[in-house]
Amino acid sequence: MTARSALPVLAAAAAAALLAGCTSTAPVGQQGRGPELVRPGALLTCTHLPYAPFQVKRDGKVVGFDVDLVDLVAKDLHVTQQIINTPFEGIETGQDFAIRTCDLAAAGMTITPARAKVMDFSDPYFNATQALLVKRGTSVKKIEDLKGRKLGYQKATTGALYAKAHGKGVELVEFEDVGLLLTAVGSGQVDAGINDNGVLLDYAKHNPDTHVAAEFDTGEHYGFGVRKGNDALRKRINEVLARAKKDGSYDRIHRKWFG
Length: 259
Known about the structure:
By secondary structure, the protein is of the alpha/beta class. It has 10 helices and 14 strands. The chain has helices spanning about 10-20, 65-75, 90, 95-100, 115, 160-165, 180-185, 195-205, 230-245, 250-259; strands at about 25, 35, 40-45, 55-60, 60-65, 80-85, 105, 120, 125-135, 150-155, 170-175, 190-195, 210-220, 225.
């Protein structure tokens, strides 16, 4: 991903500050060993909903590919994952780590040099490309076909960067989150939408009147973000990811969400 924000940063910071005031930095595990967590007994995960199939609320519970992977980390730490839905802007700028809103960020987030300046990333856990979602029956097959037409993108995302770099002659329309973007494609408000392929392929699977017309090999990799310098937690996440790939847990979770 990418990025979405629904609330002003200051409002988000104020809300997070209230939360931070109710928490403390405490060690996990016996005798103070192991990563320090914001709240004892919990692994606080920042995300921004919806971003199916990575993070999405269903039947009152947040579920998804990222959720299941972070649950493995929480289990390894003998704590429970608690998910905090927060504007993506606070995640991407590192603000949520600075004010201790969460221990890690799991938001289908592409590792980029700009983001790596304000947070540290785990090892890559998912490969992604940008893709183009359109309604079935349209003549749009590539981004060049959109000249003089409308292309929607999600604010502050790598898809937005791609659209601005390659959408010459295309009318670009910005949306705050991916839910609004997908609705705009489905309703015909825009002629196409650009976002990460995992999200768009999942949407098209459940909405057969749409399909992914093109994918662009942008070579993106998702990572879990942690506070800058929190090597203890970052290394623990990497250990869990490596073990999950070795023992088959990663493949099982991948099949569950992507088939």
